[in-house]
Amino acid sequence: MKIHLTSVFVDDQTKALHFYTEILGFVKKHDIPLGGQDRWLTVVSPAEPDGTELLLEPAGHPAVKPYRDALVTDGIPAHQFAVDDVQAEYERLRGLGVHFTQEPLEMGPVTTAVLDDTCGNLIQIATEPR
Amino acid sequence: MPGRTVCPGRGGALCLDLIGKCALAYRVVVADDLFKALADSTRRAILDELAEKSGQTLFEICSRLSMKHGLGISRQAISQHLAVLEAAGLVGARREGRYKFHDLDTAPLRQIAERWPLPRTSGPEESIP
């Protein structure tokens, strides 16, 4: 068994595609109309084009909003993405206008920071422990 | 305000007396909250982390306690510790858009130094564990 897909609820798929590709730097993998305005929309890391896909999933279900609002209030990220250098990525993304709720924080072997994906979620970036 | 009913017609003295007692009682309550808040090592660790950087989300406080202090405490327990610190006025919670941040406020500590004043000339430096 393999983990080939994970998902993040997004307020607006078009806006989310822009943020996850143009800002974060992922690339679009699948974009399939599902009827109505919803799309099967996934992105992958350019470093792993055949790796785990991230589904940008519509947040229309009524349970999503209270769940996400509560997490965001407490600063809890929905996902974690690995980067080589958190400080460098923090500066790059800040330069693109990304808002962080937690600045880079070194905690033993791990450095993390938390940003707002503008689609309703907080995302943690982290260096992988070596 | 139960004390107010005895005031009319009795002149100001009783009123002032009651207000004085109320103020004293209030100060005792405030001091109790303050000392209770400080009397716990986890809460002191939270204050240490907020002193290093004010304006942290609950998630960041949890991360710091777990990763830097090796404290295996639930998020719920940390929320309760924060509530005690807020009641003592040592931590203030502020909403900023969709997020909630916690700030350190050391102002209540002043009443300790006012109650037991520090010596004017400082003695030899000692490290406090």
UniProtKB/TrEMBL annotation, chain B:
Domain of life: Bacteria
Stretches that traverse the bilayer: none
PANTHER family: TRANSCRIPTIONAL REGULATOR, ARSR FAMILY, TRANSCRIPTIONAL REPRESSOR SDPR
Pfam families, alphabetized: HTH_20 (PF12840)
GO molecular function: DNA binding; DNA-binding transcription factor activity
PROSITE patterns: HTH_ARSR_2 (PS50987)
Domain HTH arsR-type: 23-124
Keyword annotations from UniProtKB, A to Z: DNA-binding, Transcription, Transcription regulation
InterPro entries the record matches: ArsR-like_HTH, HTH_ArsR_DNA-bd_dom, HTH_MetalResp_TranReg, WH-like_DNA-bd_sf, WH_DNA-bd_sf
Residue stretches in coiled coil: none
Protein name as annotated: HTH arsR-type domain-containing protein
